[in-house]
Amino acid sequence: MCFGFLGIQFGFALQNSNVSRIFQTLGAAIDDIPILWIAAPISGLIVQPIIGYMSDKTWNRFGRRRPYFLFGAICTTIAIFIMPNSPVLWVAAGMLWMMDASINIAMEPMRAFVGDMLPQEQRTRGFAMQSFFIGVGAVVASSLPWMMSNWFDVSNTAPAGQVPDSVIYSFYFGGTALLLAMLWTIFSTKEYSPEQIQAFTSYRQAKLRVEEETTGTRSSKQYHSAGVCFAVLGVIATFIIFKFAFDQKLYILTGFAIVFGLCQVAAAIMQDKGAVKNGFYQITHDVFHMPTTMKQLAVVQFFSWFALFSMWIYTTSAVTEYHFGSSDPSSQAFNEGADWVGVLFASYNGFAALAAFIIPIFTRLTNRKITHAANMVIGGCGLISFIFIRDPQWLIASMVAIGIAWASILSIPYAILSCSLPFNKMGVYMGIFNFFIVIPQILAASILGLMVRELFEGKPIYALVSGGIFMFCAAAATLFVRDEPEAE
């Protein structure tokens, strides 16, 4: 059931540890890299709730979630093959958009898939098993460029403007592994039919007394007023950015505010006309009627993923400059540092795979909230330690801490969330939950470059320190989450 995540993580790990390197090789400046990474959050923001809503309502001879696994895997593989061969920067950026959109098509239903197939008492272990396969896949994928150059004598340097062969061959291997792993899950699992799910839903709600939120339906007047407010504030902020020549990346935030406002206005018009059976209105309605637990977890996710996005964007720049002493993508030192970042990313994912077996034990000894909060503190210490450790070999110790936090982020919030959701909306709510992963990523892409340039004097190492502080904030927010104890 979870084996497909091994393949998905091949795509993510290759992306996280190599795309910044590819962008810099093709001429991107350090403070422009975050804006190029905006593909990941925006594609997730759009794709995941739509795919979740559609998969909730899909049933054919291929199943409910599995058709989306297949389509997403094929498209992701194509993008992975093309990415390292991009001749210019805009092509690489376009392939990142395609890769992220396709990964989201495959990944979102896989989150809901575990919720569909497992009872509440097995959810923590189920999502922890996803963490295990994610960790294993990332260990191999993140290390591929290093293995290519050190084990198979494939060149890890190339002329200016060209991606090294070690990276190109790594993407070929990773794309193939992704497709094969997803095909294994597709053809080796069987989904419950809608009738079985309906019967199980009734049983589960009677047994576990899942709370139905009774907040009432948001009125068209509320949609309209809030929507106009968001849109007007967005327009005003856009004008201020233009008038005073502020950083253009801030347009992402104001654009998001305008679009969010217009969506609410559209929902108000649909409600007035009685056109409430369509997917757009239903998703908008569900955004404003989330279970209480989901709202509380949203805060935790915001801080956690801002920290992770800081790490993914700036680890290559920070390590190559701070620990290897080079910011020139064509230099030997830079490429050795970039290869070492691949090893570091493989390490934290390896430690995450091991932590995936330990986390369920600690949740039984304490509870899910305490376990997750402690893991976030550990991860924050790992990120901050980058500035104190000068020998890059010892950064492996930092990755132990980050790996523990990563395993927890991939499992405990989803286990808590899935126990608060009705089965018939498992997919759409899992997609909406992704908002609170991608919104901090959009924020990070908008302001991290500005922060590094203006606040940190162009030193990317401080972006990792700020990520550690955000991890601490996530730990504090976790303690306020409402979580039903797991059934015995």
N/C terminus separation: 23 Å
What form results from the Cα inertia axes? globular
Briefly, what CATH class of the largest domain? Mainly Alpha
Total tally of structural domains = 2
| H-E order | HHHHHHHHHHHHHHHHHHH
Could you report the average pLDDT, rounded to the nearest whole number?
A: 86
Total number of helices = 19
**What would you give as the CATH superfamily of the largest domain?**
MFS general substrate transporter like domains
The low-confidence runs, each spanning 5 or more residues with pLDDT under 50, are: 206-214
Work out the number of β strands. Answer: 0
**Portion in beta strands:** under 5%
State the helical fraction.
over 70%
> Measured on Cα atoms, how large is the radius of gyration?
22 Å
What is the architecture of the largest domain at the second tier of CATH?
Up-down Bundle
CATH structural fold name of the largest domain: Growth Hormone, Chain: A
* Major β-sheet annotation: none
